[in-house]
Design goal:
Elements: E1 3-7, E2 10-12, E3 18-25, E4 33-39, E5 46-51, E6 57-59, E7 67-72, E8 77-82, E9 91-98, E10 106-108, E11 112-116
Parallel strand pairs: 2-11
Antiparallel strand pairs: 1-3, 3-8, 4-5, 4-9, 5-6, 7-8, 9-10, 9-11
Length: about 120
Amino acid sequence: QVQLVESGGGLVQPGGSLRLSCAASGNIFSTYTMGWYRQVPGKQRALVSSITSRGSTNYADSVKGRFTISRDNAKNTVYLQMNSLKPEDTAVYYCNAENLWAVTPRYWGQGTQVTVSS
């Protein structure tokens, strides 16, 4: 059974940093693209960043230069390092695993709240 478990969210002041972690159980990490999405009330969930099994990365324009995604294949864990945080980064962040060729193409974590406020 596949599970994605996020950690690392919390309250931080503008300009601060947080690192989110997502640990994946089940045999998917080597074949799925891992990603982070975020959602605020009243809006659709939006892609923040993703990283393929080969390490290719993708970022939303709003976070380029501030966020860094990485993965540790030995630990089945993906990270999102968030620097220079802004109040508009406040959202629930969800870990995602995606492989459109798989029987189950998407998995989601339970979400972790990130609040950027003074």
